[in-house]
Amino acid sequence: MNISDNTIFIPGGTSGIGLALALRLQEAGNTVVIGGRRTEVLDRLAAEHGFDVVTLDIGDPASVLSARDTVLAAHPDLNVLIAMAGIMVAEDVTTAGFLGTAERIIDTNVLGPVRLVAAFTEHLQTRSDATIITVSSGLAHTPLRVTPSYNASKAFIHQFTESIRLQFAGTSVQVIELVPPAVRTELMPGQSQVEAFLPLDDYINETMSLLASEPDATEILVERVKPLRFSEVNGAYAQAIALVNSH
Ligand SMILES: NC(=O)c1ccc[n+]([C@@H]2O[C@H](COP(=O)([O-])OP(=O)(O)OC[C@H]3O[C@@H](n4cnc5c(N)ncnc54)[C@H](OP(=O)(O)O)[C@@H]3O)[C@@H](O)[C@H]2O)c1
User: Fold this and answer.
1) H or E, element range at 10
2) Which residue stretches of the chain have pLDDT < 70?
3) Statement: the pTM of the whole predicted model exceeds 0.90
4) From residue 99, how far is each of 102, 152, 159 by CA, in Å?
5) Alpha carbon distances (Å) from 221 to 54, 82, 101, 176
6) Distance 36 CA to ligand 1 centre (A)
7) Environment class of residue 53 by beta-carbon count within 10 Å: exposed (0-12), middle (13-18) or buried (19+)?
8) CB neighbourhood size of 243 (10 A)
9) Which of 13, 45, 75, 223 could disulfide-link 18, Cβ–Cβ 3.0 to 4.6 Å?
């Protein structure tokens, strides 16, 4: 992916990694459209930064299609989709009540990105140079004890991304997976204050520099995520699980 001169849609661009990436990509000479559920936040970000914005809930199939139509009507040249939106919620599987949380996570983190890919796949193939960026996690490969469905949702994203890349081979669509480590955002309440987690700016700097220096990358792996990403192949799975669960 060339990191300038694109028109990019980031559902999940209202905060955290998505917003930080939106700002950096805009600075790098891209037109950026951001989406999310919080209309008032979108309106503020549109006024402050000049983003085009669209309200959407990726848990709702009709909302995804309607956002797709709105974005493409205003930006028929759209060529990059960054499926950033996601939630992370703790669960206790020793009590039956975890089911509602699990269903919500799967609907948002698994079905949401699939809905986005389905909504944009045909359009993206009409562009000569298109990219789908998915967002998994180091936890797809090394589990955090308190978030089973989240970890599994990101494992789905990893394998879905690997698989769709095979189907898009020979088309104009490149597929890239961002695999963040623990980053200081408010994905979980209080997470932005955890000193052991990577500062958001550091994560974005390293990610932008990898995107720029490796235009054919399949995965964007900052240094901090590599022990989690490769724990099993390195034979260090137990140590990685201990590390992740020590905070
Ligand atoms: N921070 C980390 O440590 C970390 C590590 C690995 C992976 N990730 C992944 O990175 C992505 C961004 O997370 P973040 O850390 O930046 O957290 P965040 O600040 O909470 O951002 C989540 C974004 O997703 C949007 N969103 C959530 N549910 C949505 C829905 N149903 N429909 C539309 N938008 C929705 C939110 O916008 P609204 O609230 O306005 O809808 C927000 O823009 C997530 O996929 C997360 O799993 C984060």
Assistant:
1) strand 7-11
2) none
3) yes
4) 5, 14, 23
5) 29, 16, 29, 11
6) 9
7) buried
8) 15
9) 13
CA dist 188 → 22, 87, 125, 237, 242 (Å): 21, 8, 35, 24, 20
Residue by residue, DSSP assigns 19-37 as HHHHHHHHHTT-EEEEEES
Residue pair 24/4 in contact by the 8 Å Cβ criterion: no
Q: What is the pLDDT of residue 247?
A: 74
Which tens digits make up the pLDDT trace of 125-174? 999 999 999 999 999 999 999 999 999 999 999 999 999 999 999 999 99
Query: What are the extents of the domains in the chain?
Result: 7-244
* Active site (annotated) includes residue 237: no
To which residue do tokens 């998994």 refer?
136
* Nearest Cα residue to atom 46 of ligand 1: 86
* Atom nearest to 86 CA in ligand 1: 45
The fourth-level CATH superfamily of domain 7-244 is NAD(P)-binding Rossmann-like Domain (3.40.50.720)
Burial per residue of 105-139, b for 16 or more beta-carbon CB atoms within 10 angstroms, e otherwise: bbbbbbbbbbbbbebbbebbeebeebbbbbbbbbb
The Cα 177–Cα 157 span in angstroms is 9
Distance CA 38, CA 128 (A): 33
